[in-house]
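Intended use. Records like the one below are meant for learning the mapping from a protein sequence to its folded structure. Do not use them to infer anything beyond what is encoded.
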Amino acid sequence: MPVVTFDYNDFISLLGYKISKDELIEKLPMIGADLDKVAGDEISIEFFPDRPDLASVEGIARASRAFFNFEIGLKKYQVKESDIIVNVDVSVKNVRPFVAAALVKNVTMTDELIASLMELQEKLHLGLGRNRKKVAIGVHNFEPVQPPFTYKAVDPDSVQFVPLNMVESMTMNEILKKHEKGIKYAFLLEGFDKHPLIVDSNNNVLSYPPIINGSLTEVTPFTSDLFIDVTGMDRKAINYALNIVVTSLAERGGEIHTTQVVDSGKTYVTPDLTPTSKKLSLEYVNRILGTKMNDDEVVFCLKKMGFNASVESGKKLVNVEIPAWRADILHDIDLVEDVAVGYGFDRFKVDLPKSVTFGKSLSKQDFYDALRSILTGLGFNEVTTFTISNERDEFTKMGLKPGRRVEIENPIGEEYSCLRVSLIPSLLKILGENKHHPLPQQIFELGNVVDKSFRNRVHLAFVKIDARANFTECKSLIEAVMRDSGKKYNIKGKVHPGFVDGRCASIVLNGVEVGFFGELHPKTIVEFELEHPVIAFEAQVDLF
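Structure written out for the chain above:
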């Protein structure tokens, strides 16, 4: 989950009201967050990723004004009109079709603002933007460029410019091969003959989305007017991202100015901070929360969470105005959750069980616990990894062709796009994150995967990385596990593209293959960015 780190004194100056640090630390998590750490005046708060509007200290200050009853209700920002136009060329439609933009004037570029803006930009790229695929944000110094701007797609070898953090001019293809950001995000433009570009009326390059900005519009400590562009694959998502960024800048005194995006004969004025509306049933709220709140109490709870709310005359309905930066409100239940937060989780009564019962663990759970003890006794450390993975880790890196899997319809990022089918890739990623620790390293996991028939299965897996790790050692570990678990088994040779030929074997129980083990192929080791021999084992233990 995203962690926002801010200075207490900077927060108080943004809040505009006095609240002691101890009281802030005690009450702020009640908005829906966890206190990560406090070091002097530096406070780190971990927010749930469904609240991208809280991914900056400015957003937290805005939410706190309402939550702490300083200024309840919906915050309003003044938005001024400008004559800036962004023309969208038809050439970009099949590449990255949507763009939104805004101008924020009279910004004072303090160290706190620069740090917060950079952190907010990256958090929005990762969460709302799904690693820049869905949303990419560009922040520019407005002074050197001249509108109107054009958003178009061009041959990546036909245009060259000086990208950020470079001094020499490069073509767009060269940026993808040589620039740090180009190498990192080149995959987003794979398969496209033309790449997106934003230029001004003099054909100066502002941005090569979603890769890098041009150095011409680099923001400096002396910049006062910021031009924000947001491009992406979803119009709603880019508008939410733009609204979050410009209102954060407005919290620090910036003046928001609109732009006109002319696209296929239609004109869109951005940013649009007009709130959306929903009707919320009081009966539904009380039924879900188990409360008996009246109209005024529900309205007050919503206002504490930054909404405008009023009771519809003669009906048990609340009219709710939702801020334009709240990307998380998709259903009535999301409003009910905010009512609960505004009401206060500490006020909900705790009910004890109505009857006394006694339970015991299932026999298979006892067996799973025994397996854990066996692996621990063999010197392995137990880990727990995410059940959500991605096609590249589960199949490509293991040398397998993509197989049947449960896909996630709206993944938060490319790393989390399907449910895992195996435990070994997750364990190898942990080894990759711990390369700085001494060898040997040996870890195991007992957890759920989803098989080809889309059923949950319980698997046991271990990996060990060491300069001397080999098939013989792996076989001896398997013999110890199977012996101590009391299972009679056979071993047969197995061919697996992720393992070295001749150094992989399957485990057979009652004529059925239940698992496999062996020495990983060097290609697999390199794919997971490891540098030493690795042995691995995985079995479906619910077949045991």
